[in-house]
Amino acid sequence: MAIQYNKMILHGILQAVLYIALPLVLFEVISMMGLVTFSQEFKITIIIIGIIGVVFAMLRHAFPKDTSANRLVAFGSVVYSGIYLFYLFGGFRSGVALGTYSINLPTIQVLLGLQLIAWLFLASSGIRALQYLIEAIELRKKKEYNVRIKKQFKLSKVFKTLGLILSLVIMGYFGSIIYSGTNLGFNIHDIAPTDITYDDGGTPGPPGLDDDLNITITFDIINQGVYAIYDVYLDVIIYTVTTDNPIVLPEYTKIGESLDNFYSTFHSFTTTLNQEIIVNIDTAYIFGLATTDAVLELQISFSTLYAGILIDVNTSIQTVWNSLI
After folding, report:
1. Among the listed residues 51, 126, 54, the one whose alpha carbon sits nearest the alpha carbon of residue 86
2. Are the CB atoms for 3 and 58 separated by under 8 Å?
3. How many CA atoms within 13 Å lie on the side-chain side of 302?
4. How far from chain centre, in Å, is Cα 154?
5. Radius of gyration over alpha carbons of the chain, in Å?
């Protein structure tokens, strides 16, 4: 059985581009755009895994396709590619729901948990690997294995068909995520005078420690994608940025918060308007906020499950505050 050196070299080069060069170039481009950051350790691991993948690709094409040796190496290569993709999407991070990838922009930071995608790729690779293993056994024993489901089918063809179907499902899943992601929106309303509730505690005059001041934050959720948004936990914290009188209202200080607001579902192809969160202002800052103009920053954090992906978002919005007195 002659070794196919030309095919080995050709496919080794192609796999080096696919396993090593392309991921590193994409990582660099994305990092330069400031969207996602990748650690040096992650890049080195990708290079090491990629080199092993190139070796498998070369061995796979060392033998003619109609030999059991080719099918056995193909089996090992597919298993390895599944492990490669499983690692790439964070499948080995057991017990870690988030943190697989992060997106960092000036006013928004996003953590993504992509373990579902990792398991889909691993399952697809496992099915294709079974196909190659059965073909290797058939070629070695010169015997064909069949399965009967109403009529007889070649067993390796069954796994090949299942692998193709799962690959199409994964492609459709990715396409639906991209489509749905471009049809999501989150809109925060400006704070209007009607959003402010002030209670003097029965003691008219300058605001005191028995007073109560609440700010209602109103927002809209636009979900015109194909997936519902589940289990949303939302926090809002208000900080001062600049104030006209730092003595009574210090700058860069947390003055109020509303934590653990829960929304079970925002259904697909819907727009949910005028959702409200009431932020209670710390009594120590009510007098300053009531008497001082300022620029406030709303720091908004929420976690959710969307299309099987765990998402954790932190964003901030600045707004101008006019004194009440």
Report:
1. 126
2. no
3. 21
4. 39
5. 29
Dist CA 128 CA 75 (whole Å): 8
CA distance 325 to 312: 38
Q: Are 302 and 233 in contact (CB under 8 A)?
A: yes
pTM of the model: 0.70
Paired with 305 in beta bridges are: 230, 310
Give me the tens of pLDDT residue by residue for the chain, a chain 325 residues long. 567 777 778 878 888 888 788 888 887 877 776 656 666 777 787 788 788 878 877 877 777 777 888 888 888 888 888 887 787 777 665 544 444 566 666 667 777 777 778 888 888 888 988 888 888 888 888 887 777 666 777 777 888 888 888 888 888 888 888 888 888 888 888 887 778 887 766 666 566 566 788 999 999 999 999 999 999 999 999 999 999 999 999 999 999 999 999 999 999 999 999 999 999 999 889 888 888 999 999 999 988 888 888 888 888 889 888 887 7
**Coil, strand or helix at 96:** coil
The rounded distance, in Å, linking the Cα atoms of 267 and 283 is: 38
Count Cα neighbours of 183 within 13 Å in the Cβ-side half-sphere: 18
Q: Are 298 and 317 in contact (CB under 8 A)?
A: yes
The residues near 303 (Cβ < 8 Å, ≥ 6 apart) are: 98, 231, 232, 233, 310, 311, 312, 313
* Distance (Å, whole) CA 315 – CA 93: 26
3-state secondary structure of 44: helix
CB proximity list for 258: less than 8 A, separation 6 or greater: 217, 235, 236, 237, 277, 278, 279, 280
Tokens of 111: 């953590």
Of the candidates 129, 160, 136, the residue with the CA atom closest to the CA atom of residue 147: 160
